[in-house]
Amino acid sequence: MNGQSPDRVERHVVLHDRRDEVDAAQSDLFDTLASLGYGEENCFAIRLALEEALVNAFKHGNKSDPDKPVRLDWWAVPHRLVVEVEDQGEGFDPESVPDPTLDENIEIPSGRGIMLMRAYMSEISYKDPGNRVIMVFERRDP
Amino acid sequence: MSSTSSRLRTHETNGITKVEFVDRNILDEANIQQIGEEIGRLIDGQVNPKLLISFSNVDHLSSAALGTLITIRNRINSKDGQLRLSDINPQIYSVFKITKLNRLFQIFDTAQQAMASFT
């Protein structure tokens, strides 16, 4: 179901772990955000967080199973975007992810995705059991 | 010597290998893996590798790309080599700052400054 009005746009998309599908969904989102007046810095932050959420969903949630899709739901108004990404995994406890900035973890190659999502979005939360992340972005104007 | 591989452009000067990315967005997992393998081969081919990675062409990168950079750094360190990063735009630099990786890597404003820092 896709919905659209001049000031509120929403999409409900099922994605497979294929770059062309992900790119098409992202293009749709960022075209919409541009039309709603979101600037380049806002889009940089959103793109980064969304990319991390999708990678986590496909890789860690769905364990890279190509038959398992990820659900992407979003709605946007001129000053607020809500993005939800749901995988088919068993979920996880986001508080259990070690702080990658600690000295003992800084040289470990993985574990920075959730931190970047938290840093670049206004709010993020997980719906139990942890297989659906809800990200809110409040538009920041220069 | 200049060469073009599928995901990297490399240029060697005075024993220092400068690497630039073909892609503006370093997001795709398969591409990131390929970048890691290609740079890994460059490191393997040198005794004490001296590598400069320029981000002049890069608009976006993901945490997976950061992970590959850390792996590259660890491999270079294990061979007593040197790694420098340069030409990172302010948005990308903010990713390094948030993750505190700006403290792990030696980052220079320009490739010229980075080249001059090798010992």
Question: Can you characterise this structure?
Answer:
The complex is a heterodimer of chains A (142) and B (119). In chain A, 33% of the residues lie in helices and 25% in strands. Chain A is α+β, with helices and mostly antiparallel strands and 142 residues long. Chain A is globular, with a radius of gyration of 15 Å. By secondary structure, chain B is α/β, with parallel strands linked by helices. Chain B is built from four helices and eight strands. In chain B, a hairpin with a 2-residue loop joins strand 2 (8-13) and strand 3 (16-21). In chain B, helix 1 packs parallel to helix 2 (63-78). The chains are: A alpha+beta (142), B alpha/beta (119). The interface between A and B is medium-sized, with 21 and 23 residues.
What is the fold's blueprint, element by element?
The complex is a heterodimer of chains A (142) and B (119).
Chain A: E1 3-4, E2 9-15, H1 19-35, H2 40-61, E3 70-77, E4 80-86, H3 113-120, E5 123-127, E6 132-138
Chain B: E1 2-4, E2 8-13, E3 16-21, E4 25-26, H1 29-44, E5 50-54, E6 60-61, H2 63-78, E7 82-86, H3 90-98, E8 107-108, H4 111-117
Parallel strand pairs in B: 3-5, 4-6, 5-7, 7-8
Antiparallel strand pairs in B: 1-2, 2-3
Helix pairs in contact in B: 1-2
Return the string of H and E elements of chain B.
Answer: EEEEHEEHEHEH
Main β-sheet, spatial strand arrangement of chain A: 1-2-3-4-6-5
User: What is the beta-strand fraction of chain A?
Assistant: 25-35%
In this structure, how is the largest beta sheet of chain A organized?
Answer: 6 strands, antiparallel
Tally of contiguous helical segments of chain A: 3
Number of helices of chain B: 4
Please tell me how large the radius of gyration of chain B is. Answer: 13 Å
Mind telling me which CATH architecture of chain B this is? Answer: 2-Layer Sandwich
Descriptive tags:
A: 142 residues; alpha+beta; Heat Shock Protein 90; 6-stranded antiparallel β-sheet; 33% helix; B: 119 residues; alpha/beta; Transcription Regulator spoIIAA; 6-stranded mixed β-sheet; 4 helices; 40% helix
